[in-house]
Automatic annotation (TrEMBL):
GO terms for molecular function: metallochaperone activity; unfolded protein binding. This is Nitrate reductase molybdenum cofactor assembly chaperone NarJ. The keyword Acyltransferase does not apply. Residues 212-224 have a biased composition (Low complexity). It comes from Kushneria phyllosphaerae. One of its GO terms (biological process) is nitrate assimilation. Pfam families: Nitrate_red_del.
Amino acid sequence: MRSLIVLARLLDYPTKALQQAAPEMAEVIKAETRLTPLRRETLVAWIRRIAQGDLLDLQADYVALFDKGRATSLLLFEHVHGESRDRGQAMVDLLAQYREAGFELDARELPDYLPLFLEYLSTRDEAGIAGHLGEIAHILARLTARLEEREADQALATATLLALIGAEDEITEHQDKVRAETRDDTPAALDAVWEEEAVRFSASSDQDCAVQSAAGQRRAQQRQNARDEARPVRVIDPVSGDLS
């Protein structure tokens, strides 16, 4: 499903390559008959805003949204397991699932990074896609509610994923809870997190240490992305649908 690749790119860090691919991405969305005309129009309008926007502003907004606090993390298992040892096993299981399907990863992202997960789903059949999206629907619903609360365009992508499986109504179940949450992206909240992570003695196994290290590396990479406009990204070929 090529539209999943487009949604993956829309949730990833903005680059010049993404802006240049906007016309092709818009055509893919226009042709996605599984979505309502209104949803297609809304997504295409967002893609045009990306194409016409100032890249540095887009990147700064992205980092402010996803690199400050964990409430809007695009790492799926962080919403379920945090950095516990259970997350480590879940990572191992997901990685094995990728490899069994012939989906090989590069070293840049963790297996549960949502855009990467969507790339994997784009290689599955419709039943597989629906099943996997159904398994993470509660995560997507809470994430969408948080993104909507922050008036972020990325809420359009996560809501679309729920719409593909007829689960968009689940978002409303989380809205009141999200409004009552204490924001974790304030200066005080961020200072508390960094103080906690400066010295951590809670790891009870090598697996725990590995997950904590990987999560820290992910956040460090995100901070580097804010300073590195040239970060590479794979884009879709409008004819073949291949990634490059």
